[in-house]
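Inputs:
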Amino acid sequence: DIVMTQSPDSLAVSLGERATINCKSSQSVLYSSNNYLTWYQQKPGQPPKLLIYWASTRESGVPDRFSGSGSGTDFTLTISSLQAEDVAVYYCQQYYSTPFTFGPGTKVDIK
Amino acid sequence: QVQLQESGPGLVKPSETLSLTCTVSGGSISSYYWNWIRQPPGKGLEWIGYIYYSGSTNYNPSLKSRVTISVDTSKNQFSLKLTSVTAADTAVYYCARHVGTTPYAEIVYWGQGTLVTVSS
């Protein structure tokens, strides 16, 4: 199984400031120039919402303050200017191989 | 727009079988892979497995001995059975679909989830 880790476990950022979440996979999820990695946002009582796929492609309708980067085994989700509605838990997930696996999540709050 | 809705008992006794159904609307179940994913209260997400509309399956090895996923194309539904449940199986169970006709793609469609509690 590919083990996904995230850091930090939680972070508190002031409104308008940058939030950065890291995700690491235990083996490369890069194949044929594509990184098989997604980022999800989950708010309480809701299912996860897709933000980023192929590690850096923003899903339609997702604000451009969300961006994904990285390749191979190390990835980053950046919220460039945190808004109140961004308070949530963020998960990375690999779909390179089964069993598909998720990171443990990073909780983002307002400072 | 594809919509998924989980249904089934919210309470299951230890050692019994958890059974859930996901009803797909707004699109056909054909040509796609359909997943079950669960989330224990306050914890992270765990992929249980998927089924192709033709019936082929792929399960998480951690649950494989207890899981069966089946599909009923005539009803546009797929189902989950998890046997010999314990309190550790208490979770919100989601059904979900990938964006396209391969399982090696992002999961974009999710049901709202249903909480199943294992307790006597």
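Chain A is about 0% helix and 50% strand. Flag for discussion at group meeting.
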